[in-house]
Amino acid sequence: MNNTPNKLLKTALRYAAYLALLFVILFPLYWILTMSLKNFKDIIAYPPRFLFTPTFDNYRQILFNGGSFSDLQGIPEFLRYVINSSITTFSAVALGLVLGLPAAYVLGRENSKANDRIAGNFMSYRFAPELVVILPLYSIYKKIGFYDTFPGMILVHQLITLPLIIWIMRGFFREVPKEMEEAASMDGANHWVIFFRIMLPIVKSGIGSAMIISFVFSWNNLLFGLVMSGGATMPVTMGILQAMTFDQIKWGEMAASAVISSIPGIIIAIFAQRFLVKGLTMGAVK
């Protein structure tokens, strides 16, 4: 009986911590969404206005250049940035899978110090500051003509996608029992047949997880777009900053741009949620 008040207190504190964490996560999302629906006076009002008349002028400005769909003549500038990011990110993730899955398979199936060092070297690219490699790459890209080109942007984004895919998938390949490979080898299957016909179907949930995580990191990257792109390949992260002019910051348009740029990641996460949950929990319990 004496433990009942303590249990109630612990339960109350636990749920209070959950609510506080939920507030910390959701309030910035609520704030950016409401800011995108405010006019400039409501945005700069002090104290902040939580009750206001919503307006879609900010979305109309970035999607239709302030007019309507029928008034459009060509692709709006912000949508070009979204298309550029889509080309770069989807291609970078696809190339990362093509290169990373075989590498992760080799590094994951053989337990050796050499493989551990190689895998650690790949992951160190994610730990190292991007400026360490981006400035030399900028000089190289200018000389070979890769600056402000999609092939150049896709290659430089391999510094994001490839290490993540190798490191994540290496763990999934290590969880597959070696007896399955041995049985396939006894049936006459070579390494490529084992890889494509047996291993990849088994770790498909991990592939989904690696795709989502690498997509999010690649899509949200700012520095590569800042240094390695120009007008032809400028990504959406740089497009959001176009709301900052020399004399003002268009907070409403910036917020609307941020909301729109988050939609692809949300859609992919929703459709691939079952792969993400299964992939992140695979191997946690044996």
Automatic annotation (TrEMBL):
Record CDD domains: TM_PBP2 (cd06261)
Principal localisation: membrane
Bilayer-crossing regions: 12-33, 87-107, 153-173, 194-217, 223-243, 255-276
Family classification: Belongs to the binding-protein-dependent transport system permease family.
Assigned keywords, A-Z: Cell membrane, Membrane, Transmembrane, Transmembrane helix, Transport
PANTHER family named in the record: INNER MEMBRANE ABC TRANSPORTER PERMEASE PROTEIN YCJP, MALTOSE TRANSPORT SYSTEM PERMEASE-RELATED
Membrane topology field: Multi-pass membrane protein
Locations listed in the record: Cell membrane
Gene Ontology cellular-component annotations: plasma membrane
SUPFAM superfamilies: MetI-like (SSF161098)
Official protein name in the record: ABC transporter permease subunit
Protein origin, superkingdom: Bacteria
GO biological process: transmembrane transport
Domain ABC transmembrane type-1: 82-272
